[in-house]
Structure formats: structure tokens, C-alpha cells
Design a protein that fits this description.
The chain has 506 residues and is an alpha/beta fold. It contains 15 helices and 19 strands.
Length: 506
């Protein structure tokens, strides 16, 4: 008989969430390092470099890998011989651990969880409640998997009820290109097949917690149908040429994981969920002897690389920026930005557009300014701002034309591709859109030298700030002619990959 104490579970959850906020799993570091070593696309290699440098910086500085510190997922297997020394329910213990983990004063994590999702959408401030799944199993141990899942990758989850004769591989290959780059590839693709709709989704999520072993599988060969499917999907998804951050390249997925379950004769439920370049999860066991202990990865696992840009990088002074200068920028150009920029995300854009529609004056002058789509982590100690990586630009597409034409905005910075309505607005107004690397939040924050609150303080991390930056790295994603690197890059690299495969087969 094992007795689990309330405080041991609470502290273990809190410690796990702190640990995974700044340490990538070792298997993920190795897979990312391998992708970096193999990558031939300069743009994708540059993005992978930033992710790896950021990862090492976070491991040393114990600060979040990504500003989106995730919604907490807890998968528990509770032994039938486990008893509890607790006044709280199991869910309440987990949520108290989340509360402590996200409000730790030495490493404050961003609260992203909102109540009333289709109403007031009020932030709970401490990232509670977690999403908890519990199994009762034989034994006297408590097995727990804790994951912090970012919103950008969760937003790209897909589900379908296929006909029994339909091809799972064909369906997945049809939807992966529609996911864009908002899930910050390269990452892992989790697949759940069978059961019922909710079971398929849960299996896809569970599969993301498994050890990355694709290259070992390729060496030994498949021993069953699911392993054959994993290998086929790995090759064919990477063959799409989407690449790191969607810029075009050799690696889009580091691994593909598949789980299945018996299903109704008339159905074939299929779910896919991606894990991003800020993959964060850890497994631990409680046996009644005390809280879990976590061992940091060996620092030798990270490659010894520095973040360096090539000689063709352009240095840009935002304080003297003119439309004529932005018109010379081309899709795919690398820029180093210095000077003052504004920030704002979904909630701020909604308020601004509503004010414009009502004919009200705006609280900030956006004329010829650049806005950064960001919701940073709160700063600690002597930080100007906490980790401050980009959020998905696509969510601001519906506001883009109004902000360009009515507010006078010159350009935007986010992550991932822009949709056609935004591309059209950018082209029509000869504006520009740029990307910063998702999964490099701490590295980006080091370029921010000053932060001033300008408007909408009630929005918290979504308020409008003015950042002063020094040599902040970005890539032009959509130039003033409307050319998009996220459209052209994958086209180029899917063709190159196809040519490589053809040569091998000769």
C-alpha cells in the first residue's frame, strides 16, 4: 500500500512545470540538433540556429523557452493500491501545483488560461485550471506526464471521421499544408486513429509524449502497420518542403507518432495534433517516498553554436523608417531592427478597430510605425521584459487592412504565414510583414532594451507597449509587392527534395 501525501503531489507538479519551462527534453534537443546539422536551406538553418541558441540560453538562465508557457495537460495513471493523505481532491491538488508553478517569483510564467471562452474571456492569472486525464490501473504507484502545450500548436489540431476505406495517410497529407507555420515547425506530429472522436484526440495528444526514435526506427525497419505509417508520413510530410518556421527546408517534422484503438465498424476517426519547437513535457513517478526529483539535461547535448547572421543582413533604424525604405525590402531578406516599435495582439487590435469604426481617436499614433504581435512573460530581477517571442500573425489578418489604411501602420512582425486577405492588404498599401522566430523568445527578449506601457493596461500581456530594441532579428515574410516567403519557400524546397529522391532512386 502506497500513501501519497498532498504536499508531495502539489510540489511535484509545480517543480515539473518550472523544469519544463526552461529545459527541452533531451530526445528533442538531439532531434533538433540533427535537423540543424542536416539542413541545407539557409533560411531554415538560421531559424533552427535561433531555436537551439535560445534553448541553451533558457537552460542556463532558467527562463521560459517560449513566451507562450502553455495550457497545462496532466495525464495520470493511478495505481489501485494508492491511498491519499490529503484534504483536497486529486484535481484540486493538481491545480494548486499549477498555481505555484506559474507564479514562482524567480521564474514567473505567463498565465494564458481564460474562463468563459465564448464570453468575457477573463484571464485566471495563474494558468489554472489544467486539463486532466486520469486512468485507474493495477499497482501501487502514481505515474504522471505533465505537458505545457502552446496555443499556436493546439490551434492546428485536425480531426475527421473518415470512411473505413479512406486512406489515413492521404488525409493527413492533405491537411498538413493547411496548418501553415503557426505551430512553429519543426516539431512532432501526433496521430490518433480509432475509438470515438474524443478518444482519437486523446490518443494523438498522448502519442506526443513518447520518446523520439524515428531514426532508430528507420535503421531497424518497421515491424507492424503503424510503424510503416510513421515512416511513410515522416518521409512524405518532410517532402512537402515546409521547413523550419515554414520558410522552406528539409525538416518539417522531427518524428511522427501514431496510436490506435478499436472502433465502430462504420467509422474511422482520425486526429492529428502537432507539438511545436517549444516542446515541453516530462514523466515522473510518485511512490510515497516524497516529491519527484528532476535531473537537468547535460549541457553537452546542445551544439556549440553562436547566433550569427550573414553579411547580407540589413540594419534598420525604426526611428527614421520611411515607406521608400520598406519598399526596397524583399521577401526572405534578413533584417536587424533597432529603435522603437509598438506591440499589440488580438484583444488590442479588436479595441483599436472598434474605435476606428466609431470614429474615436486612437490612444497611440501608428503612422509609419511597426507593430510586434507579442504577449511577453512578466520580467523578473533586472529584466526589461520577460521572454517575448512572436504570436501567430494570421490571427490579426482580419484587422490588417483597417490598421494599414485607417491607422497608418507601416508594417507588422509576428510568426507564421499571412492569409490572402492580409497579403492583399499589404500589397495594396505597399506595406510589409515580417517574422521573428517562434521558439526563440528569450533570445528575442535580449534585444529589447526598454519597455513602456502606452494603452489598454486592463489587457495585461495584451496591452499596447512601446519597445526599444537593439539588433532584433527578423525575416521579411511578405514584401510590398505581396510576395510571401511562406508560399515561395516551400515550393522551392519541395521541388529540391523531390529531385534528391529521384537521384537516389536512379
Amino acid at each position: 500500500m502506497t500513501i501519497i501525501k498532498q504536499e508531495d503531489l502539489i510540489q511535484s507538479i509545480a517543480d515539473a512545470l518550472q523544469f519544463i519551462s526552461y529545459y527541452h527534453p533531451t530526445d528533442f534537443i538531439r532531434a533538433m540538433r540533427g535537423a540543424w546539422e542536416r539542413e541545407e536551406s539557409p533560411a531554415a538553418k538560421g531559424a533552427l540556429t535561433q531555436v537551439l541558441v535560445n534553448s541553451r540560453m533558457c537552460a542556463l538562465g532558467k527562463r521560459p523557452i517560449c513566451q507562450d508557457t502553455g495550457i497545462v495537460n496532466v495525464l495520470m495513471s493511478v495505481g489501485m493500491d494508492v491511498q491519499w493523505d490529503s484534504e483536497l481532491s486529486l484535481d484540486d491538488m493538481i491545480n494548486e501545483g499549477v498555481r505555484r508553478g506559474y507564479t514562482h517569483p524567480d521564474n514567473v510564467l505567463r498565465g494564458s488560461v481564460l474562463v468563459e471562452p465564448d464570453g468575457a474571456r477573463t484571464n485566471t492569472k495563474d494558468n489554472t485550471p489544467a486539463v486532466i486525464h486520469t486512468k485507474i490501473v493495477p499497482g501501487d504507484k502514481l505515474e504522471i506526464e505533465v505537458a505545457a502545450k502552446g496555443g499556436g500548436s493546439e490551434a492546428k489540431a485536425k480531426f475527421a471521421m473518415l470512411n473505413p476505406s479512406d486512406s489515413v495517410v492521404d488525409w493527413i497529407l492533405s491537411v498538413v499544408p493547411t496548418m501553415g507555420a503557426g505551430w512553429c515547425p519543426p516539431g512532432i506530429l501526433g496521430v490518433g486513429i480509432g475509438g470515438t472522436p474524443e478518444k482519437a484526440m486523446l490518443m494523438a495528444k498522448e502519442s506526443l509524449m513518447e520518446t523520439l526514435d524515428m531514426h532508430e526506427l528507420q535503421e531497424r525497419g518497421a515491424s507492424n502497420h503503424l510503424e510503416e505509417m510513421r515512416m511513410e508520413l515522416f518521409e512524405r510530410v518532410n517532402g512537402l518542403g515546409i521547413g523550419a518556421q515554414g520558410l522552406g527546408g528539409l525538416t518539417t517534422v522531427l518524428d511522427v507518432k501514431v496510436k490506435d484503438y478499436p472502433t465502430h465498424a462504420a467509422n474511422k476517426p482520425v486526429a492529428i495534433i502537432p507539438n511545436c519547437s517549444a516542446t515541453r513535457h516530462i514523466h515522473f513517478t510518485l511512490d510515497g517516498s516524497g516529491p519527484a526529483e528532476f535531473t537537468p539535461p547535460d549541457m553537452a547535448e546542445w551544439p556549440e553554436i553562436e547566433f550569427e547572421l550573414g553579411s547580407d543582413v540589413r540594419k534598420v533604424n525604426l526611428d527614421t523608417l520611411t515607406p521608400e525604405e520598406t519598399h526596397t525590402w524583399k521577401s526572405g531578406d534578413t533584417l536587424l531592427l533597432s529603435g522603437k516599435m509598438l506591440t499589440g495582439r488580438d484583444a488590442a487590435h479588436k479595441k483599436l478597430v472598434d474605435m476606428i469604426d466609431r470614429g474615436e481617436p486612437l490612444p497611440v499614433d501608428f503612422t509609419n510605425r511597426i507593430i510586434y504581435y507579442v504577449g511577453p512573460v512578466d520580467p523578473v530581477r533586472d529584466e526589461v521584459v520577460g521572454p517575448a517571442g512572436p504570436t501567430t500573425a494570421t490571427r490579426m489578418d482580419k484587422f490588417t487592412r483597417t490598421m494599414l489604411e485607417k491607422a497608418g501602420l507601416a508594417g507588422m512582425i509576428g510568426k507564421a504565414e499571412r492569409g490572402q486577405i492580409a497579403i492583399d492588404a499589404i500589397r495594396d498599401n505597399k506595406a510589409v510583414s515580417m517574422i521573428a522566430v517562434g521558439g526563440a523568445a528569450y533570445l528575442v527578449a535580449k534585444a529589447i532594451t526598454k519597455s513602456s506601457l502606452l494603452a489598454f493596461p486592463e489587457l495585461g500581456m495584451e496591452a499596447i507597449y512601446e519597445f526599444e530594441v537593439k539588433d532584433m532579428p527578423v525575416t521579411v515574410s511578405v514584401d510590398s509587392t505581396g510576395e510571401s516567403v511562406h508560399i515561395e519557400g516551400p515550393k522551392i524546397w519541395s521541388k529540391k527534395i523531390a529531385e534528391k529522391i529521384a537521384v537516389k532512386q536512379v
